[in-house]
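Troubleshooting log. The previous structure file for this entry was overwritten by mistake, so regenerating from the original sequence record. Sequence copied from the archived sheet and checked twice against the printout by T.R.
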Amino acid sequence: MVLSNRPVIADDKHPWRCRTLAKQEVCLIGPPGLIEGHFDLDTALTRYPLVVPSAKSEIRVRFDLLCEQHGIEPQIRAEVDDMATLRLLARDSNAMALIPAIVVKDELSKGLLEKYGSVKGVEETFYAITVKRRFESPHLQGLFQLFSMPG
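Regenerated output below.
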């Protein structure tokens, strides 16, 4: 089994089975006090510089679509390929980052960063990728049942 944040498509040569395991909300997070008062997504995206995942990520594809649907032209300061770099930029760039809160949970709990708001319709999805088999391993069946439980 491979865990990934990108789905795969099966074909005749590659009989993959791709299952959704979990989804994580994506937020706008930045230095404390950057936004004063009520958070408004449209205003935040046009008024403050952003650091975002690269166009190769599912998060970015969903974010770009959301901006297009709302006629928003965000101020993108940087695009990065990995969450570790996005985490550092969120902390050190004086810009807001488009990132799952879990990636910067330590910084949020220490007050180094502030979560300004969720970006509805933009999420990161995690997948379990296996080879399609006639009989699935009992271990995998048990694992998938854990992820399908509510709560």
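The beta strands are 2-4, 16-30, 49-53, 75-80, 96-100, 114-131. Archived copy saved in two places this time.
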